[in-house]
Amino acid sequence: MNTTIDGCFFTWDHWALFLILFTAHLSADFLFQSDSDVERKSETSVFLKHIIAVGVITYVLAGLWSAWLLPVLVAAAHALLDAAKRRWGNDRPLWFWLDQSAHLAVLAALASTITYPADHTILWVLLFGHLWWHMLVVAAGVLVSVFAGGVVIGLWARPFLVEVKKEGGDVRLRGLERGGKTIGRLERAMILVLVLIGQPGGVAFLIAAKSIFRFGELSDRQNRMEAEYITIGTLMSFTWGFVVAWLTQYLLL
């Protein structure tokens, strides 16, 4: 399968390699990197652990043991970008988007220039056949929706949390420490599953159930700001979950 985009010749091998690099990047940045690691990334040991994880995950997903140069290049590029963000960046949303965009641009450049045979010579294709590429698409969908989605929604909702705190409230003091994050991940995972199995209408029950649990807070004036913050975050989470789920479904067709 050959595809031409904006004059750049992309073969199926290029797309397959980009899918591998993209999934590895998501795994290293959002699955295997804890909140503590992100906060302590200025420490050399934590930084090196993250870069090694990028290389190892890339190497494993590539499934071509002779392609040792691929994870080296990916890890080196990742290290340079992360070091640049460490030096000049901050925790504002703009820097997050700039950083992720730069990573994706580098991965696209590597995928378009490195020779990678996406055929039976790959270990995972030998084991799973063409199902392997569908598995990668689903894995990437889960990572973008469930894990990266939590970071994105946290950045989007931050201004509202700041407003709540100005009024002396803090939703995190009224619930489990990681309760909101866990609930968000579960709801986006359920949306992805329901869309992929062709039952998106089931999400309506999820919305109804969550609305019932939040009704008491919405009707209480003391908790109104906090309840509105939670509702805004919920709607952001559902929107992100649906968009990623539909995109994942489209790529599987």
Sheet with the most strands? 2 strands, antiparallel
Looking across the biggest beta sheet, what order are the strands in?
Answer: 1-2
Secondary-structure element pattern, one letter each: EEHHHHHHHHHH
Q: Could you tell me the number of beta strands?
A: 2
Structural class: mainly alpha
General shape: globular
How much of the polypeptide forms β-strand, as a percent range?
under 5%
Number of domains: 2
- Helix proportion of residues, in percent? over 70%
Low-confidence stretches are 1-8
Summarize the structure in words.
This protein has helices at residues 12-31, 35-39, 44-62, 69-88, 93-113, 123-128, 131-166, 179-196, 203-218, 224-252, and strands at 2-5, 8-11. Residues 1-8 have low confidence and may be disordered. Helix content is 75%, strand content 3%. The protein has 253 residues and is mainly alpha-helical. It folds into two domains: 2-125, no CATH class; 140-252, no CATH class. Strands 1-2 form a two-stranded antiparallel sheet. A hairpin with a 2-residue loop joins strand 1 and strand 2. It is built from ten helices and two strands; from the N terminus they run ββαααααααααα.
